[in-house]
Amino acid sequence: AGNYVYLWTGYLGGNAITITPDNTQDISNLAPGDYTVVVTDANNCTATQTWTINEAPPAIVLTPTLTQPFCNNGTGSATIGINGGVAPYTISIGGGTPASVTTNPHPLTSLIPGTYTVTVLDANGCSSSTQIIINNPAAITLGVLVTDVLCYGGNDGELEITAGGGTGSLTYTVTPPIISGSIVSGTPVTV
Q1: How far from each other are the two terminal CA atoms of the chain, in whole angstroms?
Q2: What b/e string do you get for 135-166 counting C-beta neighbours within 10 Å, with b at 16 or more?
Q3: What's the pLDDT tens digit per position in 122-151?
Q4: Most C-beta atoms within 10 A of its C-beta, which of 47, 125, 128, 169?
Q5: Residue 129 has what pLDDT?
Q6: pTM of the shown model
Q7: DSSP letter, residue 70
Q8: How far apart are CA 87 and CA 173, in angstroms?
């Protein structure tokens, strides 16, 4: 027992290499591959051992799917698909408290309009982040021009309604019911 000489060799991509510095018991910062150590004692007796350092798992890839809010100042949602890495995973939003991922894709609900950074951490401590944006649809604006009845008992009053904003075609209803239907945003309607 006592002094030993260590000779490390490895095979990276099919090529033999000698790892320096020689005569080191421990080596680190190794790439995937096969590594062999030959230990020689003072009597020139040797022992040989080979180990394999495996490739890392694939990188974590996050795939967000968004559902935007339907109305101004509403809430949206997202699902985050997780591929790669090593399960189990945790997920956090904006640096908040990590939560366990129990379903994949993982649902995120009740998201108010804004930009969020979503980070997933795997069992090996590897992480990946993605940014999601929940938009805020334009508010519906409503303008009404009122023309009063000119004479007692008349029915020549008017309401000219102009609506804008919102999403897609706007539908209007007048109470008490006179007419209703769809209107192109910004088009005045007289009732």
Answers
A1: 104
A2: eebeeeeeeeeeeeeeeeeeeeeeeebebbeb
A3: 999 999 999 999 999 999 998 888 999 899
A4: 128
A5: 98
A6: 0.69
A7: S
A8: 53
